């Protein structure tokens, strides 16, 4: 009764696919963040665009941080587990929302609260 892959309900192929998605998104977001920072440097701050830039930069920074954390979780064995009930998050959900940290039940409970 030994199960070598007990730590993850996801197959290697599924993990590989999710890892690729995360990396692509991370690269995209990092590039976007670089662009925004360059724009911020050029901006005079005289009009309202600077504030919008700061908001966009903050959002992009957060996305980059969340994506790299997800990559770290994927490298370990905690990825794909619900943060609340420790239950497995289905691959179909992760494929749509690679950053999902809760299962659908917990998400609904959270939203209802
Ligand atoms: Zn859950």
CATH architecture: Up-down Bundle
Strand content: under 5%
Order of helices and strands: HHHH
Largest sheet: none
Low-confidence stretches at least 5 residues in length (pLDDT < 50)? 1-6
What is the class in the CATH system?
Mainly Alpha
Shape: elongated
Which structural class matches the secondary elements? mainly alpha
Helix fraction? Answer: 55-70%
Number of strands: 0
Are any ligands bound, and if so which? Answer: zinc ion
Number of helices: 4
Radius of gyration: 18 Å
Keywords: Coiled coil, Metal-binding, Zinc, Zinc-finger
Coiled coil: 12-77
InterPro entries: Znf_DskA_TraR
Protein name: TraR/DksA family transcriptional regulator
Protein described:
With 113 residues, the protein is mainly alpha-helical. It has a single domain, classed as Up-down Bundle (Four Helix Bundle (Hemerythrin (Met), subunit A)), CATH 1.20.120.910. 65% of the residues lie in helices and 0% in strands. It has 4 helices and no strands. Helix 1 packs antiparallel against helix 2 (49-75). Mean pLDDT is 89; it is low at 1-6. The structure holds zinc ion. Zinc ion is lined by residues 82, 84-85, 87, 102-103, 105-106.
């Amino acid at each position: 009764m030994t199960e070598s892959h007990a730590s993850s309900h996801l197959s290697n192929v599924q993990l590989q696919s999710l890892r690729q998605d995360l990396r692509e998104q991370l690269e995209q977001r990092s590039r976007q963040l670089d662009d925004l920072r360059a724009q911020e440097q050029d901006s005079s701050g005289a009009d309202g665009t600077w504030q919008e830039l700061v908001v966009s930069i903050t959002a992009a920074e957060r996305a980059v941080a969340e994506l790299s954390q997800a990559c770290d979780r994927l490298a370990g064995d905690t990825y794909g587990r619900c943060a609340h009930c420790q239950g497995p998050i289905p691959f179909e959900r992760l494929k749509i929302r690679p950053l999902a940290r809760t299962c659908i039940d917990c998400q609904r409970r959270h939203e209802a609260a």
